[in-house]
Amino acid sequence: MNLLTSLAIGILFAAGIYQILRRNVIRAAVGLVLLSNAVNLFLFSAGAYNGQSAAYSTAAAQISDPLPQALVLTAIVISMGGFAFVLSLLYVISTRYKTSDSDEVKGLKN
Amino acid sequence: MNTWLLLLPLLLPFAGVPLTLALRKRRKIQSALALGLMLAALASTFGLLRAVLTTGQPVSVQMGSWQVPFGITLTADPLGVFMVLMSQIVLSAGLIYSLGSTEKVVQYPTYYPLFLALAAGLTGAFLTGDLFNLFVFAEIIVISGAVLTAIADDTYGVEAAYKYFYISTLASVFFLLGIGSLYVAHGTLNLADLAARIASNPSAPLTMTGMAFLTATFLIKSAAFPFHFWQPDFHAAAPTAVSAMLSSLVVKVGVYAFFRMTALLFPEVTLLKTLLVGVGVAGVIYGGFGAAGTHNVKRMLAYSTLAQIGFILVGIGWGTPLSLAAALVFTFNHALVKAAMLMLAGAMASRAAVKSASFEVVVGVGKYYPFAGVLFLLGGMALAGIPPLNGFISKLMIFWSGVEAAQYVPLLIIGVASIVTLTYVTRAFIRIWFEPNPKAKEKAGDRLLAPALLVLLSLLLGVWAEPLVSLSQWAAAWLGDPAFYIAAILR
Q1: What is the predicted ipTM?
Q2: Distance between CA atoms of B103 and B35, rounded to whole angstroms?
Q3: Do B173 and A86 touch (CB under 8 A)?
């Protein structure tokens, strides 16, 4: 399970970084989502395997650390808000510059 | 009482976000409410400062009354209250500028709510005593700043916001990786608790990894040298009042985090300090020459921020009590001056034939506005570090602390590079106020009250620098002894 999780995190990171470096702005946005999911999984794995029962349970069994889960929840909400903002930016950019190639979006260079 | 003094600077702007959003149909009331809340927050910050000064102890509050180190801690220690005071003074000036601005963006119903969200994010970031909470406030700053830039009158605002948002989302990814690493290593995110645990077990696996991730994050946030490429675009394209906030306050969040990292979390790691000195010196050189080479006043000032952040990072990197105090004074003075200068640049741009801060457009516009010229000259003198302005005090303290720390090579480099400041400021002043331009006409533009107040404050803090200097020396003394901070929070 440890190996599987670390592989999943690694693959998500690699794919995310690859996509975010692409010139196509939509692929870059997908890369952003992959990266934030990779880091969420990483945070989650920080406290994933310690307990046998959920944090709210009153059973005597050892409970998992609830803090990483709370952190991930917050991070998910923030990255969702950020992604919505990125999509709206992409909409404006695509109507204004008529392209999805980030190299063509260079108004600030002149 | 002290609890409320701590909560009010944060709660007032936060409460203002929904309130001003509800009043979006009534612009006059909305903007007056925003300014009123900001001034009330500023007043309560003064009260907070007084409470911290008289008791000599940080004021701290546990959210939801959880026992330390669980739950979220809000702390006003000397450093935090110093930074909050700085940001609220400049934010109030920013709101005053917005009230008198002719830009279309201030008419948008969401402008004031977003501005207050930026204010709340900044205040929260300086007051929180929890690493993850710092991340959340940093995200509030990023999102509100990026949206304010995306809706700017400047057509390239969207492009600049897009660039900035990608870079800072990457910074957030690094931030979360750093938080995760430190949590795995030490099992806590409360800054005081984390500092105590790192001190007792500095070689726990992933500690250094976490530090590296946090360093990368805050270098991006403070737009230090190799991570600055988005910064001039972003600061130049934002609406004037907002760009003044971005260039003077938002980059200071990264600087603040470096104060915390070098003094509290990783005081034993000399590599980090050396890195900061190196990055700072490179930023001073690159920012100075970048500013001298631009064709736009706002861009010039944005590059100048890069150089000035370099000075501050060098001061943090030297790490002596005097250099930390110098870095704090520099941080405060730079915030006042840079905000005033950007507002003046924007006010002149609003009076130009086409609204732009490009030198070609804005040249000669100053002919009809001698008062703005006096302010710009005073601000420029403060930026270059000429007495009797506050910039002189900050540079004097930095150089003095460098001599005391016997760091002659970086001292020589930043000393030479700071002369460049004088050249670009003078050039901007001469081009705007003395070069003839037949197209320049007298025209209504943004009001000059806010930059006048800030320049006045700069002049005051240059002539009568003692309160600020002793305040920062006191904060630096607190920074020098992390055990104090840890004991005061963990009790």
Answers
A1: 0.92
A2: 18
A3: no
